[in-house]
């Protein structure tokens, strides 16, 4: 991708963040669903809180999110619509800007894996002259019964995990298949970012912000998560359809995003 540097810096300032404009190809936008617990055990409260936002996870710059097209959970073979549970929230990002995000509470009723997912409304990104739609999910294990995490929920773009996406040590490898319209995407680009929640990680150079990998010929990607915390995987592909902005057609970045948490040994 080539940029008119001056133009993209100007547009970037008014749009989203200057960091995108300066970055070469990595856009580093991530739709996020972060639960406050990824494994709910018997002796814990069965209610979890989910933080839903559209963010640059490592740099901490936020974008405003509107009410998503869909928010739900797939568990025990049932698909539940949770859209009514979303509560709008204002969260200050690392620039001091207040951003529109959401929270949701969910009470786990049964043992088994819970796949929380979101389909956001298309986001117009002037700096990239493109729409962004990141289909996103996160898996929470309920009461120790490990069943359901590898189910496909049938999103237009979806990462299907090959590694169980919870109960992971820091340093574990993670593998997943990138799918669009249910088919694996050979050599799909996948961006990986750490959720730098407390700002404790300072990247020494811009390429350190977003790790960039590619899937193999079968659409399978592999990444070793070097330390504990939340890691986001965003498989990015261009939609076959375009969308209109001010009467003109623009490409749509189709993202399949999955969040996994790694744990340090105590
Ligand atoms: Cu952004």
How would you describe this structure in keywords?
binds copper (II) ion, Immunoglobulin-like, disordered N terminus, mainly beta, 2 helices, globular, 266 residues, eleven-stranded mixed beta sheet, single chain
Explain the overall architecture.
With 266 residues, the chain is mainly beta. It has a single domain, classed as Immunoglobulin-like. The protein contains two helices and 22 strands. The chain has helices spanning 5-15, 18-22; strands spanning 30-35, 39-40, 47-56, 61-63, 70-75, 78-81, 87-92, 98-107, 112-119, 123-125, 130-142, 157-161, 168-169, 173-180, 183-184, 189-194, 211-214, 220-224, 229-238, 243-245, 248-250, 252-263. The strands form four sheets. Strands 2, 5, 6, 9, 10, 11, 13, 16, 17, 19 and 22 form an eleven-stranded mixed sheet that branches. Strands 1, 3, 4, 7 and 8 form a five-stranded antiparallel sheet that branches. The chain is globular. The chain binds copper (II) ion. Residues 16-17, 20, 29, 56, 63 line the site of copper (II) ion. Copper (II) ion binds next to loops.
| CATH topology type | Immunoglobulin-like
Chain-averaged pLDDT? 91
The biggest sheet, with number of strands, parallel, antiparallel or mixed sense and barrel status, is:
11 strands, mixed
| Helix and strand run | HHEEEEEEEEEEEEEEEEEEEEEE
CATH architecture classification name? Sandwich
What is the count of distinct domains?
1
Poorly predicted spans = 1-15, 17-26
Relevant CATH superfamily: Immunoglobulins
Alpha plus pi helix count: 2
CATH classification class: Mainly Beta
